[in-house]
Design brief:
By secondary structure, this protein is an alpha/beta fold. The chain has helices at about 15-25, 60-75, 90-100, 155, 175-185, 200-210, 305-325; strands at about 5-10, 30-35, 75-80, 80-85, 110-115, 120-130, 130-135, 150, 165-170, 190, 215, 220-225, 235-240, 245-250, 250-255, 260, 290. It is about 25% helix and about 25% strand. The structure holds NADPH dihydro-nicotinamide-adenine-dinucleotide phosphate.
Length: about 325
């Protein structure tokens, strides 16, 4: 059985940063990605304007730059879906020790077995960099009309609504960025937010409010998405007045937050009340040898810049862990 120093689960900014740091530190590292060139959410971001040194870079280009950097250093990638993770048993741990330390006795380092759709993989440590996925509105019509006017990615699907009317639901960075992006091609964009204040960064708020074809509908929730074969309208309700109305739109972009992809880790790593893996700035989780990086980690600021920082911190912690075990 081949034994890795670290297996990095996920190839978004956090995973790629960890790959680069691991390679440069001389660790035997493998990065797993579900799909070829997975890349994470950054690939679907139209414009990233807060990554230092690269103002206004397209998200796809930034993601590809991270990947090219890792490829240039010779980082090892494999396409594999992790099904489950288990701590190695005592016998297996001894085998692991023998394989890694030339039969030298060390103190209790056990390691993990990752069961993937491509077979088992053994590793001393893991970086959980599995990221997050889109949250849903969970209203009637959403599931039925997904791909028929309901979308979770404005940069992927926005072009279908050129010259048409679209709505964006949410008030965070993603919703506001989506509204700004869609306003470039759509005749009209409604930004529907459940409160009377946007959560998004001030610079984005200012920009979206300056756009003549964006109308912000405050204090309002979507109750139903309607249409036969395509989205035709939204039933919306003002949460303060209780007033309901129908809004005619051809597309609706749902941007109501993200859900951590923690399923394979949650049995061995403690999660917080929102489902994120509990880990501090050193990225160490409650499971020895497992480190969390990027959007799956419980933290205040989920940005590309903090994801890449996590990747670097996780590998630095792993170097300490491998020496001290
Ligand atoms: P956020 O959690 O920041 O915002 C989600 C928004 O959706 C909030 O305004 C929230 O309302 C609203 N919302 C949540 N649930 C519902 C619901 N059921 N119905 C209606 N509205 C709802 O998520 P984002 O996806 O915008 O961003 C995710 C993370 O990614 C953030 O940390 C963000 O900062 C980060 N990001 C970083 C970027 C970068 O690095 N350049 C770019 C884009 C995003 P309320 O405000 O009332 O809670």
């Amino acid at each position: 059985m081949e034994l890795y120093d670290v297996i990095i689960v996920g190839a978004g900014p956090a995973g790629l940063s960890a790959s680069i740091y691991a390679k440069r530190a001389g660790l035997k590292a493998l990065t797993l990605e579900k799909n070829p060139m997975s890349g994470g959410q950054v690939l679907n971001t139209y414009e990233v304007d807060n990554y230092p040194g690269l103002p206004g870079i397209n998200g796809f280009d930034l993601g590809m730059k991270f990947r090219e950097h890792a490829d240039k250093l010779g980082c090892e990638f494999r396409e594999a879906d992790v099904i489950s993770i288990r701590r190695l048993g005592d016998g297996e741990a001894a085998e692991l020790q023998a394989a890694s330390m030339g039969n030298q006795k060390t103190h209790g380092q056990k390691g993990y077995c990752l069961l993937t759709d491509q077979g088992e993989l053994w590793t001393k440590t893991i970086v959980a960099a599995s990221g997050a996925t889109h949250a849903k509105l969970n209203v009637p019509g959403e599931e039925e009309l997904t791909g028929m006017g309901v979308s979770y990615c404005a940069t992927c699907d926005g072009a279908f609504f050129r010259g048409k009317t679209a709505a964006v639901v949410g008030g965070g960075d993603v919703a506001v960025e989506d509204a700004i992006f869609l306003a470039r091609g759509c005749s009209k964009v409604y930004l529907i937010h459940r409160r009377d204040e946007l959560r998004a960064a001030a610079v984005l708020k200012k920009e979206v409010m300056s756009l003549p074809n964006v109308e912000i509908i405050w204090d309002t929730v979507v109750e139903r998405i309607e249409g036969e074969e395509q989205v035709e309208s939204l039933s919306i309700k003002n949460v303060k007045t209780g007033k309901e109305e129908k809004l005619s739109v051809q597309g609706v972009f749902v941007a109501v937050g993200i859900i951590p992809q923690k399923e394979v880790f949650e049995k061995i790593v403690q999660c917080d009340e929102r489902g994120y893996l509990i880990a501090g700035e050193d990225c160490a989780t409650t499971a020895p040898g497992i480190f969390a990086a990027g959007d799956v980690r419980g933290k205040k600021l989920r940005q590309i810049v903090t994801a890449v920082a996590d990747g670097a911190n996780a590998i630095t912690s792993i170097l300490d862990y491998l020496v001290n075990q």
